[in-house]
Amino acid sequence: MKPFVLIATRAEDEAADGEYAAFLRYGQLRERELLRLRLEAEPMPTLDLDAISGIILGGSPFTGCIPVEEKSATQLRVEAELSALLDDVVARDTPLLGACYGVGSLGRHQGGIIDETYAEEISAPLMRKTEAGRTDPLLANLPDEFRSFVGHKEACRVLPPSATLLVEGDACPVQMFRVKENLYGTQFHPELDVPGIHKRIDVYREHGYFPADTAQAVKDYTAGFDVSVSHRIVTNFVAYYARD
Fold first, then answer.
1. Among residues 63, 103, 82, 38, which one has the least CA distance to residue 204?
2. Residue 60 burial by CB count (10 A; 0-12/13-18/19+): exposed, middle or buried?
3. Which of 2, 11, 132, 192 is the most buried (most CB within 10 A)?
4. CB atoms within 10 A of CB 91
5. Which residues contact 29 (CB under 8 A, 6 or more apart)?
6. What is the tens place of the pLDDT at every residue in 149-160?
7. pTM for this structure?
8. 211: which residues sit within 8 A by CB, 6+ positions away?
């Protein structure tokens, strides 16, 4: 099988390693089948899109909608590199699954409006498939409603004109969309389980997602959610797009 590539931007090793392990687990992949690029540490190498099965774009502590002057040199480089990659990926309709930061990157690239209007605190809200979502191959074996973990400072307020809405929510209307046939963005984290969200709460407790002194309360709150259904999206993406 041609490998998938995980593009990551988490500087904290514990969070980065946990994200990689989660995509391995729910993608049912071995390490040689999921190559990892950490753009926060080094520039994007040249990717041969013909040599891979697809791309997974993980979450990030970066917030794309903040003013340019507030962005670090690393964030600006990462954004430029992702934009250039998406030029090719979208043109070729290369399979892509972008989670959280990925939905913002793809949405912004395609002309959507990404801002702080529909930010969500860490929780596992109810997701609802749209009519188009009910027939999408990545959602085929999911119920019409399911839960998945979220926690983000920005979200897609206006859907890109090229996108099809697949999953919606109450507090954040755009939860998953597809561009062309093979490019997906999810605002929620289909790779996260309870241990995974607890690890991120520990790592990012000082990053403004919640008051730092409430970290244990947030962990207690999230411990009660069953988000296992959403993991099927990762499994389905890998199964659907894996190629020899």
1. 63
2. buried
3. 192
4. 10
5. 4, 23, 238
6. 999 999 999 999
7. 0.96
8. none
